[in-house]
Amino acid sequence: MKSIDKHVLSDYDNGVERNRLRTDLGLIEFERTKELLLEYLPKPPAVIYDIGGAYGEYSWWLANLGYDVHLFDLSTKNIEMSAELSTEYPNTSLCAAEVSDARNINRPDNSADAILLMGPLYHIVDKDERIACLNESKRLLKRNGVLFTAAITPYATLLWATTVFGTNNYLLNDEDFMNMVERELTDGEHIKKEGGAYTGIGRSHFHSAKELKSELEQAGFSNNEIHGVVGGAWLAPNIDELWKNEKSRESLMRAVRLLDMREDIIGLSTHLLGISQK
Q: Are 249 and 215 in contact (CB under 8 A)?
């Protein structure tokens, strides 16, 4: 197996994932993903493997709903941080929280009712290795088990940089940054210049909805649906403030649902979620 980029793993080991889903567009991503999970998951109790689940925002939420959840992540720091969430979910526990590679999970064949693959597919930059990762999930799933696969779109970086341009951020003026996003739009490869002005996510592969669906099909999954989990709602200013108001929060979520599976605009969503069946 090819190793994950050392800078990516270093970022996660420095705790970069902490609270990502609790602010700005992460609020929308988390809420819409939870809606979709509740729609497609079997009823608890069922066995769920959260593979590449960071420090377990989804794991703890699902465990609190009565699911038997096993959390796996490549970052030692993320697994250590998972214990922090136990204080938010009293009388709840995970079945396991283990440092593991998504391409090699130490569990038996046909042992999970559902798998969350929320991060590995965009940090495994070699296509053959991504298919191997999907095949590992297929091995672990029971017959008719459900796979949830997250991806980042090739448009995400450029769209984000455009929305903040001129607000203490002038990345669109930076030639190295623009060369980086042109490469993303060409073949999905996200390769930032070391020491450059852009300090965001490290080496990754960004999927179009069509490419994500194709890789899921290549791995043998069926009934593949691709959802745009943040739609265009992430473009709204001051999401943190809007989120505090129940009516505004629901208006944002309604906007997301309206564009959720519109093929002509799904790329506007910075994050995609594939939902598939073994």
A: no
d(CA 179, CA 17): 26
CA 126 → CA 4, 34, 40, 172, distances in Å? 10, 29, 29, 28
For 235, other C-beta atoms within 10 Å of its C-beta total 16
Q: What is the DSSP letter of 104?
A: B
Q: Which burial class, exposed, middle or buried, applies to 263 when counting CB atoms under 10 A from its CB (0-12, 13-18, 19+)?
A: exposed
Task: Using a cut of 0.85, tell me whether the model's pTM lies above it.
Answer: yes
d(CA 27, CA 20): 8
- The residue to which tokens 């002509």 are assigned: 264
Q: Which pair of structure tokens corresponds to residue 44?
A: 């608890």
Residue 220 is given by DSSP the state T
DSSP secondary structure code for residue 206 in this structure: P
Q: Is 174 left (phi over 0), alpha (psi -120 to 50) or beta?
A: beta
Question: What is the per-residue pLDDT across 87-143, written as a single tens digit (0 to 9) for each?
Answer: 999 999 999 999 999 999 999 999 999 999 999 999 999 999 999 999 999 999 999
In terms of Cα–Cα distance, which of 78, 30, 31 is closest to 52? 78
Tens-place pLDDT, residues 31-82 = 999 999 999 999 999 999 999 999 999 999 999 999 999 999 999 999 999 9
Spatial contact of 222 and 144, defined as CB atoms under 8 Å apart = no
